[in-house]
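Please, structure for the following, as tokens.
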Amino acid sequence: MTTPKWKLEKDKMDSRINVRRSSLPEEGGLKDILREIKKISEKQDLLQNEVQMIAKKQDLQYKTFQEEMADLKKEWREEIGAMKKEIIKNSNDICDLKIANRRNDKTQSKLQEKIESIEEKEAKLEKIQERLEFQALEFQLRYRNVQEEENENIGWVIIQLTAQLLQCTEQEACGQIDRVYRVQSNFTKKNKAIKDVIVHFLKKTTRDEVLKRNVRNPIWYKERKVIILKEYPKSTLNRRRKYYFLTDELKRRQIKYRWEKYEGLMATYKDEKIWITTEEEAKDFFRTLKKDVNVNRLSSSSGSGKNPKETKKRRFDSPKHNDPTVTELDLNTDQEDSDEGEQQEEEGTHRDE
């Protein structure tokens, strides 16, 4: 069944009206969208402006940074140039110093060689001088404990003592003596002791004979025992000082020893002769003596039926009467050297003529 035409046309019109009515709100949404787009575009413009401003600031900062870097580079270049100049100058100075040091080393080596040669010559001269002193002192003796008197004739006193010792006439003793005089030392000044008497003999054999006879039969003067000693150079006495700790022990144990002419000493221990020429050797020998004393004490205390006092006495018996190899001259030398060492330790200073 067909619809009428007028109804169809009416339906078309109604549909058109409906369509128009529905398009009205869509137009309002577009406006809002356009507004939003406009706002967004404005914001974009603002952002672009801000970005441009930031870019300009960055450009300014970059320019200032470049300028500062350029200034720094310029300063660095100037400083590096100055440092290079200083380095070159210092290197030149170092080269000059090296050359000067080489010259100084050469001159110093030459001076050292000269000093060494001078020291060698001085050592040789000292040895020669010491030998000459020895040769001069080989004719001298020191008489100790000879009582002093006012207006004394010390020469005549010494002639009488020497004649008594040599068992000859006074005229013969006078013919053997060259000079006689007293000497004063620091020890005699401080302690007001008796001054020693130096006697010069004309012959060395006479001097040796006086020493030998003095060991056998000592002489006395005014109730005092006269001690007769050899004379030694001061350099020799100074060298002997470093061995006094050993000589004290040797004298305490009554062990024979004899001073060497220039350096050291010779000791007779356990029937053997031991030469000591350095301080280290003296210390080693001193330790050996101490060890032997301890061993002897242990053996004496552990031995049955033995008297420790008798053992100690036998151990410290003087070897002068037991050793047949020792001559009178050796005994004399031991005695006089020991007395000389004791006197030097008491005085604490060298004899001063």
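The chain has ten helices and nine strands. The longest strand covers residues 177-183.
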